[in-house]
């Protein structure tokens, strides 16, 4: 089948950029090769009685930050764009906790916070940051595709996710670094949650004990969501987190990275 | 109208009439006017908020804060609990039927995860869950009218639900019928639940959640009120002879149904499944479904320690589902002679344990000195022995023999090793008193058995001798399935 | 349903906080901090004109998002808006506006929007249908809290949300889901009109 062939090509294409990417500790964009991605929350037509899994989605090549955006990087952004300083920002764009760990507009506090992910930023703020670099936030599909890493180390990624959920928050996120995955992307799990461009695209199924249900008149009658793998708890956790957010929300363990079309 | 529908209509009316015996109809509760406003008193288990004496419905404001906290699951076993109010189970909420509840779900900013709440007392989509998905550092508000009286479970319903519930996110809300509940001397809150750690039962340290075990429904711990030993020893429930006791019993799950039983105490009245309409009487064991509840009421006739268990016994004696109710006061030999006959409930013992195929091999660190052996043995004792033989080694009269100053124990070290490894199923006499219970065969390592016996010998005026793993290996009862591999 | 004192206090606090922040951060338009009119995206209406969101400022506006080839929920959304329009109090018909923003930046050209308005009998004196690029649509949907995503049938899955904005662009009320009669939204709208908006 054509789809299968594309998938094989995608796996083969991975090897070289991954090798090239590993090395640098953080920062910079990594090119992710094209391939197929099966969304965790599949879409099916209402009343169609369809039960089979959704066909995989084709993901075009794209570029993505190797690591989440840091406090130091974000300081540069608010220095150049005063409208995103914490005392300037409007409630439409960020709630009252925006940059809550920062003592002042142009001060992220302890020096070691510089290479830690910036958190307490809203979707609007994260998006504005990426726009200044000519980039966007990754879509949920892009982000999940990067994490899926063509199936490499799936069990270990799940185990590390669960371990992160099981660890108390303490003083906030740790420093960026450590190993990167096969695509050369690092810190997708284990430091912070991350915003995606279409974080609310699946909020339609927020109350998800009835994954195949059609949730009332609040939802377009055209679709209900199903779950690709009900035993993938970390994927559920990410989906629930995204569904709980609104665009001006900020949270202590919620950061972001940028993405864009392939260079 | 089709033939037959008239008859079934009558049946429905009759059922509704019977159900209306305690509490009012939904329609009446919906229309019940709201007078005044109050803030709900919330309590941690085993405590219950005071009874409601209002004779009208009111607006009750509930603030429930979700906190992700590290705590103790068993001796030396740490766990990150997700809680409604800081502890497991969640805060007990008490309202009256007809009340309008304004519910504030506050997700603490230090939390990592989004949460919501499904109260089984709510008539509405998701029981509130659809309206309360809340990001960390945010707060959701929704309101509901309490249409049905009863004792209800609440829990987090954020996907993956079994993980949120498996980490401790449940509690109970009592909707008192408008007549109120009868006056009793003590009310207690007891909630059973199951936990799924990556390490096996007893393995020390901070234990992460195991997705595989929760999916397979293979809990490592089944406990009351959030931890092994939460309600035993000096934390046991208390009462006096002649007192009436009401237990609000819940089962948070996520998976395991409870066969709730009080050893040596018959429940005078049970409200099965927490429903107020059809109490039953003279009950031995009542089923509490996962996500369900029951109310048990009884009067204490004699003093003693009454053990509350999930009568699916493996859970009570090996996984933690055991609590205690200590009753003081004068004996009543007419009710219970204490000597002539053994009324004690008998665990099914070694055969049943071995048949489960579940091994409980715990990798224990090797002790380097007798002092270390005693220290490590204390933990083994707390996890395996204390439930029956008690923290003070005194046992329970007529049920579990004392270890303190025990002639049976001090007289013969090898017999002690054989008893622990092979179990005991025949009557025995300890310090002049007869016992006819069953001691299960413990599938512990040589090291653990050496440590626990050395600990026991070091305590309570016992002989102080040391038992080594080599001695255990040599004298271990190795018959059949009881053998332990290391 | 009445609200408790606690809730009222909370809302009042939020409003004060919003005002304080808004005052500190009033941009060129001077809109309150939570006003939708702080969004700077530009849209094209059914006549091809370029429109900023604050073009709707000064009077209440009923806002919804959808797309013209949507055959299930969008007709119901528009029907709800038309129901509100039919029940406007006399004297308010010339002031209240209705705005329908499209997710479909590709298919929903101004011509298509105009055709849609005409075929549904939407009075151009009150109704504006608009389209913009994907990014602007996503931003507005985020601000209005309208979950949406493209589906595999050349359309979009999305929530049905009707939003009432006051004269300053702040959300006065949101109706989630479609209804036979949008009484609550109409009530809030009448309240705004009575206050002189």
Structure description:
The complex is a heterotrimer of chains A (263), B (486) and C (197). Helices cover 27% and strands 12% of the residues of chain A. The model of chain A is unreliable at 1-26, 44-52 and 205-225 (pLDDT under 50). Chain A has one domain (2-69, 134-261). A three-stranded antiparallel β-sheet of chain A has the order 1-5-9. Chain A has 263 residues and is α+β, with helices and mostly antiparallel strands. Chain B is of the alpha/beta class and 486 residues long. Chain B contains 13 helices and 23 strands. In chain B, β16 (267-271) and β17 form a beta hairpin. In chain B, α8 packs across α12 (446-458) and α12 packs across α13. Chain B is globular and about 75 Å long. The termini of chain B are far apart. Chain C is of the alpha+beta class. Chain C has two domains: 1-33; 35-194, Glutaredoxin (3-Layer(aba) Sandwich), CATH 3.40.30. In chain C, the strands form two sheets. Chain C has a seven-stranded mixed β-sheet with strand order 2-1-5-4-3-8-9, with helices on both faces. Chain C has a two-stranded antiparallel sheet with strand order 6-7. In chain C, a hairpin with a 5-residue loop joins β8 (161-165) and β9 (171-176). The two termini of chain C are 24 Å apart. Chains A and B meet through α5 and α6 of A and β2 of B. Chain C: One of its GO terms (molecular function) is metal ion binding. Chain C: Cu cation binds at residues 70, 74, 158. Chain C: Pfam families: SCO1-SenC. Chain C: Keywords: Copper, Disulfide bond, Metal-binding, Signal.
Quick tags:
B: alpha/beta, Immunoglobulin-like, Cytochrome Bc1 Complex, Chain D, domain 2, 13 helices, 29% strand, disordered C terminus, C: 197 residues, alpha+beta, Glutaredoxin, globular, Protein SCO1/2 (chain C), SCO1/SenC (chain C), metal ion binding (chain C), signal (chain C), metal-binding (chain C)
